[in-house]
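example protein:
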Amino acid sequence: MKTVDTIFLDLDGPLLDGTQRHYSCYRSIMEGAGFVPIDSERYWQLKRDMINRRELLALSRADSLYDEFLTRWLTLIESPGALELDIVQPGALECLRNWRQQGKRLILVTLRKDAAALQMQLQNKGLSAYLDKVLVCAHESGGAGKAQAVLDFLGERPDPLRSVWVGDTEVDAQAARSLGLDVYLVQNGLRSPAILERLDCTRVVESIVTFSTYIE
């Protein structure tokens, strides 16, 4: 068990279940363009296995929608109505509350394009009260952007002996490795266990609740 003072947290996956939001946006785009979407269970399985957009659209014979899909997706995915569909992961609030009571510093590091919408979502979902800092990065910056945001905020590299990173994708693994931190990736996020197991220097756990048993 590792004693930590600071926990760097990804939002989508470890703290929020975005299953409904992602599928709702996908279905809206497909139906709006006159195509039949695949069912939600199959969509989510393929997304967690990192299917590319062209293959996904081909399943509905919607290859012609390739260029338009991303534009529509970026418009919808962080809209207020879509963000409202996210659900706080079971046990996440309790973990955050306990960590704050223990005096741990909780820093959220997430890839979002609308910082104002993010802050509103964090308040609506009851998460903001437990976070010491929220760092927002552009999607295209990836793991390097997340790591740089941490460095810019702290002014130095975090102590690897007293800090840990919790995420759910290869982006989080890259950010943590760049900072020299241990990283735990949850299975109930945007990547399947099979994908996560392929990443180097990571520990795969079922959820943020499971992760909490690894630290003190």
In short: The mean pLDDT is 95. Residues 19-32 form the longest helix (14 residues). Residues 56 and 210 are 32 Å apart (CA to CA). DSSP finds eleven helices and eight strands in the chain.
